[in-house]
């Protein structure tokens, strides 16, 4: 496949929570990232287009269009694209299993890395209700957990049909600052447990806008973060290693390849610690 000299090719890209259609979406930064990176396979891990917000007021500037065009262009040039909807684009869940011009829609997916590890790829909103009521549900047992997952899905479909906004777990957690840490770890535990239940080596998710990559829970927990605040993405290199990238002016300037920006910004320090472990 022909490519530009300064394009970085990776095996896989995992992106989530772009929230295109909202003012908060950092579409320009994402466009910049997509200029530098090309992948054999791209996973969109939910909340790509914010259907809930679009309904209450159309906001769709050119840059948001450009992101969609850029992704479609990568598909035309040979990248595979799997779109796993989240809660903000759950209208697409009605179409899972179909293939739209090279884009596969799936409720969740299993990704196998180059070194043979298997990951569950899922947005994660399915666990909102369980995260909030973990203590009660633990007391009530397995059936309550299963019921909560079920109720969570149908509650949100009902809210959508009633024209209500999506109840946001991350907004809720931010309001209850004291609980935020708690809530992140509960979310991580639930997703790790789901990975174990599906007998895979790890999980790659989004939803809570908190990028992370660790092995503290017996399986790999990977959260791609978002393109509203943190501008984070997970890439898989050709040897199967995963890397969490925080995209910023600094990370872009540290890349090899001719770029006029480098010449004028030599004195600026390059923040390598922007890349979280
Ligand atoms: Mn979400």
Automatic annotation (TrEMBL):
One of its GO terms (molecular function) is UDP-2,3-diacylglucosamine hydrolase activity. SUPFAM superfamilies: Metallo-dependent phosphatases (SSF56300). InterPro entries: Calcineurin-like_PHP (IPR004843), LpxH-like (IPR043461), Metallo-depent_PP-like (IPR029052). Residues 11-210 form the Calcineurin-like phosphoesterase domain. It comes from the Bacteria. Coiled coil: none annotated. One of its GO terms (cellular component) is membrane. Keywords: Cell inner membrane, Cell membrane, Manganese, Membrane, Metal-binding. GO terms for biological process: lipid A biosynthetic process. This is Serine/threonine protein phosphatase.
């Amino acid at each position: 496949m022909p490519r530009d000299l300064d394009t970085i090719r990776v095996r896989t890209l995992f992106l989530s929570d772009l929230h295109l259609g909202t003012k908060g979406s950092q579409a320009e930064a994402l466009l910049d990232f997509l200029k530098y990176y090309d992948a054999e396979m791209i996973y969109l891990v939910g909340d790509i287009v914010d259907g809930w917000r679009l309904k209450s007021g159309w906001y769709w500037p050119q840059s948001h269009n450009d992101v969609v065009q850029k992704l479609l262009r990568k598909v035309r040039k040979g990248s595979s694209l799997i779109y796993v909807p989240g809660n903000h684009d759950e209208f697409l869940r009605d179409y899972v299993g179909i293939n739209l011009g090279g884009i596969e829609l799936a409720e969740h997916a299993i990704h196998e890395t180059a070194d043979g590890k298997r990951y569950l790829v899922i947005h994660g909103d399915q666990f909102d209700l369980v995260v909030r009521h973990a203590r009660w549900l633990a007391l009530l047992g397995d059936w309550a957990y299963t019921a909560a997952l079920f109720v969570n899905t149908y509650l949100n479909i009902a809210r959508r049909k009633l024209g209500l906004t999506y109840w946001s777990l991350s907004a809720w957690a931010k309001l209850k600052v004291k609980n935020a840490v708690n809530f992140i770890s509960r979310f991580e535990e639930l997703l790790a447990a789901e990975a174990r239940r599906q007998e895979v080596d790890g999980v790659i998710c989004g939803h809570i806008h908190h990028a992370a990559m660790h092995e503290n829970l017996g399986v790999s927990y990977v959260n791609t973060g978002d393109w509203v605040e943190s501008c984070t993405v997970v890439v898989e290199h050709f040897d199967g290693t995963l890397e969490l990238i925080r995209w910023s002016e600094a990370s872009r300037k540290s890349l090899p390849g001719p770029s006029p920006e480098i010449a004028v910004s030599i004195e600026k320090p390059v923040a390598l610690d922007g890349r979280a472990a």
